[in-house]
Amino acid sequence: MFYARLVHYKLGTGQRQVAERLAKEFDTINRKLSGFRGNVYLFDDTAGEYRALNYWDTKTDAENAHKILFPKLENELKNFTKEEPTYKFFEVYDTSDDGGLLFSHIKI
User: Fold this and answer.
1) φ, ψ of residue 93 in degrees (nearest 5)
2) Which residues in 11-75 belong to E strands, given as ranges?
3) CA atoms within a 13 Å half-sphere pointing along the CA-CB vector of 48
4) Helix (H, G, I), strand (E, B) or coil at 41
5) For residue 7, what pLDDT is reported?
6) Sign of the C-alpha dihedral, residues 51, 4, 28, 102?
7) Which of 29, 47, 87, 91 has its CA at a distance of 20 to 30 angstroms from the CA of residue 65?
8) Which CATH class is domain 2-95?
9) What top-level branch of life does the organism fall under (predicted)?
10) 54, 48, 56, 67: which is closest to 26 by C-alpha?
């Protein structure tokens, strides 16, 4: 069993370059944190909405990463939007019990 943190934020339309820059910046930070497993970035340019899904080994790893990452994101977003980002934690169920890569992300 492992955990995910889903962050949602709005930048408005025409802000894809900003979203890409933020994704790259936060991806670099995530990879240095304890318990990191992976990231998926979801972009809806038409609506100007963006999401980051981070995978962590434990709930504690996800929460500790959040304490570091979320304030940084809030600070960055102040330059582009007045809308506050939101987040939620999830327990991840993967159909494989081997504890390795996300089985659901592998084409068989």
Assistant:
1) -105, 125
2) 36-44, 49-56
3) 10
4) strand
5) 98
6) negative
7) 47
8) alpha beta
9) Bacteria
10) 54
Q: What is the rounded CA–CA span in Å between residue 15 and residue 5? A: 23
What whole-number distance in Å separates Cα of residue 83 and Cα of residue 94?
33
What radius of gyration do the chain's Cα atoms show?
A: 14
Structure tokens given for 1: 């069993």
User: What does the block give as tokens for 72?
Assistant: 């940084």
Residue 5 and residue 59: Cα distance in Å, rounded? 9
Position 84, amino acid: E
pTM: 0.86
Where along the chain do its domains lie?
Answer: 2-95
Residues 6+ apart with CB under 8 A from 26: 39, 52, 69, 72, 73
Contact 21, 79 (CB under 8 A): no
**Coil/strand/helix, residue 45:** coil
φ, ψ dihedrals at 47, nearest 5°: -90, -10
The residues with which 102 forms a beta bridge, in sequence order, are none
